[in-house]
Request: fold
Amino acid sequence: MEKAQMKTVGRLVSIFMGLSITLVMSILGPLKSGHITAPAVLVSFLCGSILSTAIALLVPIKKISDSACGKIHVNPEGFVGRIISSLIGDVVFTPLMTFAMVFMNYKRAKMVDPNLVFGKMFIGNFIFSFIIAFFLVLIFIPLFVKAAIAIVRSTSVPEEHEEENI
Reply:
């Protein structure tokens, strides 16, 4: 697979992971607070999806993970490499996603309970989200890599056809 295709695979994997983490956080955050409603989940998911897609397109997580694994002489495809990649993805996505989602929920909840403290709400959700996201990334990355490779291969033009079109 050529370099441009691998870059596309990396971006797709990041987008898939960001959307997966967003979906889980959109459900678990309100569920954890005890105030889950369909509109709250939908708004959180839509806003989180926009943010996670932007992060996925701007931050080359695969490149960063592979570089980190290379510096400590670990195979990025091995179990330790997957743990490192999961941790890096988690560090990139989770703080921003948690902040955005907690902030949205905080603004709504503050109308009901003016004594809410943002920091307390954020820290509790961040720790919870960080742990959940780490395991989500660890479990789903191999599946998302296979899916992204299949998508890129199915949408790319084979080399022999490229010469015929010139």
Observations:
- The longest helix spans residues 118-155.
- The two ends are 21 Å apart (CA to CA).
- The CA atoms of residues 98 and 125 lie 7 Å apart.
- Helices lie at 3-33, 38-58, 61-71, 79-112, 118-155, 159-164.
